[in-house]
Amino acid sequence: MSIDENLDQFEQQIAQLYQSVADFKNCTSALRNQKCQQIDAQLHKSELYLIEYKELLRQSAVVPTSTRSRHKQLLDSFTSIRSEFSSVKQKQQNQQQNELKKQIVTVNMQYENQTDQLKDMNSKIEESVLRVQINNQQVVNQDEQLQLVDDKFTHIQSKAEIAGQLVSNMKQKENKSSRILQIVFVLLSAANISMTVVVAVQNTGK
What we know:
By secondary structure, the chain is mainly α. It has helices at 3-26, 29-59, 65-205. The protein has three helices and no strands. α1 (3-26) packs antiparallel against α2, α1 (3-26) runs parallel beside α3 (65-205) and α2 (29-59) runs antiparallel to α3 (65-205).
């Protein structure tokens, strides 16, 4: 390859770099990494042309001034587009980092909000558990009170049954006493009649 052919290809490569960098400025974030790798490959290829040019220059006995001047212009263009790409790349990396920081801040805020919500839910759950425990204790107390009432009712009912039995026994005794009195009264009446008859007979005999 001659020096002029080398410079022609180097010039074409620089033109492609300008177009690639322009596309890189306007590409979406999804294509940014792919476009960046493509430009890095083009820069590496351009650097190979520079290395080849130096070798051809060393092998050439005479190099026209116009050729040297053209090479210098292309080298300046290459240096400029490489610097521009580096600046744009750094700017986009900073933008990505800022976006990432914003996302991290957003995620942290969401995490803090969720943490607060979880704390609030946990507090409500603890309150509910406490209310359930209080209600359970109230139920236990009510059961104990009902048991006491039931025991008292059973005790009163037992006493009532005993009292009823006593009343029944007393009535039976009263009935027996009344019967006995009736028999005694009959016997006394009979005895009185007998005495009356005896007295009458005695009086008649006189």
